[in-house]
Amino acid sequence: MLDEPTQGLSVEETAQAVETLAALMVDGDVTVLLVEHDMEVVFRLADKITVLHRGAVIADGTPQTIRDDSEVQRAYLGGLA
Fold it and tell me: Model pTM?
């Protein structure tokens, strides 16, 4: 379980952390629960994503499904109150 593993890291450190985590996960023998607000990190590492807004699930699915979800786009662009 990782809670905001890239928070406070530089761009270079974030890239290294993502590379390290991806290498650990590549063979499928490790399950990771990742809580992260950096969506690029999430899209790089996750094969399934659940998006919460104000404690409620607003979307669940593959990275592409999440990228395309209009409610997720509104929430991250400040459209949901």
Answer: 0.81
